[in-house]
Amino acid sequence: MRCAQFRTALSARLDGEPTGLPDRRLDKHLARCEACRGWQEQAERLRGRTAGVDPDGPSAAWSTNLLASLGGRGSGAGGPGVTGGPGQGDDGSGPER
Q: pLDDT tens-digit profile of 7-60?
């Protein structure tokens, strides 16, 4: 098996999903593969940082604050520099087809 396949299984394990591999096999690979151990550590750190994030994405207020912190570009969703929005095409004209 390649590391990419183990990393897919590790990602599933981190998300509480079925890995498709015995835990013992994953653990054995981690014990031998420094690159995958590093990948898992990064994935765990990222998961910790995003644990409180809404799965539907950031709120309009968060987006507005981010845009303001980037130099006042835009005024929130649909403002200058922001294309589309929920249900919008790339040009902001309506649903994509």
A: 999 999 998 999 999 999 999 999 999 999 999 999 998 888 777 777 777 788
**In this structure, is residue 64 part of a structural domain?**
no
Cα 62 from chain centroid?
17
Of 32, 34, 37, 45, which Cα lies nearest the Cα of 10? 37
Domain that holds residue 40: 3-50
Distance of CA 85 to the CA centre of its chain: 19
Report the C-alpha gap between 32 and 70 in whole angstroms. Answer: 43
Q: Is residue 91 part of a domain?
A: no
> How many structural domains is the chain composed of?
1
CA 9/CA 96 separation, integer angstroms = 34
pLDDT of 73 > 70? The answer is no
